Amino acid sequence: MRADSGRDAKRLGAIEPSQGTRPMTAPPAIRSPLRWRRLLIGGAVIWVLMLAAFVMTGNIAMLPAIALIGAGVVPFAVVLRNGERLAGTGLILDDLLYAFLYGGAVGILIGGFMDAEVGRHVSRRSLLLSAGLIEEAAKGVALLVVAWRLPARSMRAGMYLGAAVGAGFATLETTFYALDGMLSSSNKLHTDAGAVLVQLVAAPSGSRLRSLAST
Description:
Layout: H1 2-13, H2 35-57, H3 63-83, H4 93-119, H5 124-147, H6 155-183, H7 193-214
Helix pairs in contact: 2-3, 3-4, 3-6, 4-5, 4-6, 5-6, 5-7, 6-7
């Protein structure tokens, strides 16, 4: 109950006051502005250091962390950046983080299930044509799951929530493609560090090309 009341108090501070009234307090959406820049720079440095450590040691146990950090730093930084612009929306940063984590996971769950089910009944060409629609529909359902209990109902609030859901979805999707590219080639594990590095760098763009081909 205390956590809910705290969120409500923060959210009230994010709503623009009506004309002729003055709020008692107007807390910022984020305590420290430009936090997203520190996250972006720090995440990039950690990612490069982990890549260097992997190249030197060849320890494949590091690959999931490399893939997740590489896929998630930029989308999460975008979510934090949007968190600095929530004044007047009725949203707080907690709402965007919730949409990023849970919305992205729900979108991947629905999209992965629908892709598998549709793939059993249609040709490969038809599956490619429908993959983009399935992905966008999954994001839409995930957005509804996240937003239905929130008091904010404006178009601007919906755009921020939708962007957060899409960022979470993209993080998990790119992580999958990165790991798939690094670990599988003709169902064999790649042990050459150089080959794994090239696949990791190419994986995010490869997933985007797949998405473009499917639309």
